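Slide 14.
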Amino acid sequence: MADHYDTLGVSREASPEEIKKAYRRLARQLHPDVNPSEEAAERFKNVTHAYDVLSDPEQRQRYDMGGGQGGAQGFGDIFETFFGGGFGGGGQRGPRSRTERGDDAMIHVDVELKEVIFGVQREITVNTAVLCSVCEGSCCQPGTHPVTCDVCHGQGQVQRQVRSLFGNVVTMHPCGSCQGYGTIIEHPCVECAGKGRVRERRTINIDIPSGIDTGTRLQMRGGGEVGPGGGPNGDLFIEFRVMHHDTFSRDGNDLLATMQVSMADAILGAETRLTVLDGDITVQVEPGTQSGDIVTLRGRGIQGLRSTMRGDLKIAVQVTTPTKLSGREKDLVRQLAALRKDDPPHLGEFHQGFFGKIRDRFFRQG
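Slide 15: predicted structure.
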């Protein structure tokens, strides 16, 4: 079998571009549509096979090391022909399109708990592929256009004859000159290097709905990357993470908090003003309030996802006992104890600590 380099008329040190130019020059001379002779058809087959091997870095390396003449690819051609990949086997016919759908993209956005109550609009910046403003997706320098490939004449494919135990088999393969597109861009756009798109940071506004939670993912159709050749945009997926809050936590659409109440206010009752995530509220501490009691404010929680209903704000009471008392204060407490004649300290119901008690009461309430 002839040496592939000799077949193409290049040296063994030829660059990929030199190999491609040599193939295109010979293909113009030997293509069956240009030169119908049997000798030209045989040479065209050899030239195409040589180019297939030398244009692929891995195959070229194996060939240079004496690892065969590319015969495995010929067998692959026959296999494709009879089992679905070659001419008449249901494979792609006609030229490839330079226009493809863009990739989907995903970004992660941190959201404060306050923003989750009613939802919020946020401006975010994404690094993505956008339409080239110079060529507007044509991939060509302004004023130029792709030209029809003179090897495959716009078909994007070329025929190849392979000798096998079945006889001469004709297969269709992507044109090596135009890479299967059927056209050649002789003057690629310098701005996007002939891709029809460039990478750019752009700012978009997103509506963050109420009620989202960590892991909630939204899909913005058409918000992803523009495709090669100015193809349609992919989708943008936004995944949220609700940030930790020092005062409030969350149970579904309910907000949970704790409130410290003095012993005197717990005994006598009191009214207090508290600042919560969506404004100020008035809270009534009932006389005789105990540690672990829950004050529930209906409709002051989080507005549900795709809903107008809000959860509740549940505030657990923690009665604080003073640790330092003056002599007079101690006397007053002793007088109260004498008047009350309460039972002495005794064993009661077992609890896993104060916060365990709060947790149990939180989740027992509807």
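Speaker note: The longest helix spans residues 38-54.
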